[in-house]
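=== RUN LOG ===
request id: a7f3
mode: sequence -> structure
chains: 1
length: 233
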Amino acid sequence: MTALALIAEDDHDIADILRAYLEREGLRTVHAADGRAALDLHLALKPDIVLLDVSMPRMDGWQVLSALRQASATPVIMVTALDQDIDKLQALRIGADDYVVKPFNPVEVVARVKAVLRRSGAAGGGGVLRVGPLEIDTEAHMALVRSGQHDGQDVRQLALTLTEFRLLVHMARTPARVFTRGDLVDACLPGADALDRTVDSHISKLRRKLEEAGAPGMPAGVRGVGYRLVARA
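=== RESULT ===
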């Protein structure tokens, strides 16, 4: 089944344009006209990607993005008239995957959607991320490490906490990107854990589990900055 895109946009004309161009490229779409409806549809339908406006009734895009990041790793592209650098930085800090400013070229938006879906492993409707020996099924909430040759391959499933799984998925979507502790707190840790120093503890436990399963050196620390999943692109 082809990928499903959730369009969270209160302007019906803009939503219709996005729907038409995405469906022309073979994607399925669903529309939410306010933030609360967007969260409800996300919970019910589990879309592969969300196109999210900021200025919406009931819940704005920032609130929706924050809620999504506490509950899932679904890729999100912000599509908004807010064009200041501070808005873009806030979106990326909370956990958006891309940022498109209105007025936009719908062909470019479709291209960005496809690029994000490729990175997330959901272009064909699946939710599997692969980075080196690591394989993560975001829908089944399962992570595996595959080592050795195909004929004698050793497959080990990781026993991860919810926070460890969120951290792993978030970094796996852009494995060469360096994430600050603040990035990881905002994207992966609920409010009670929202202290930068707690990230080090979670990453340390995650790294130990990956090493024991046959994937040493993941995630890699970047001195004075934070972490990335792989040492090199």
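=== NOTES ===
Residues 180 and 226 are 4 Å apart (CA to CA).
Residues 4-120 form a domain with the Rossmann fold fold (CATH 3.40.50.2300).
=== END ===
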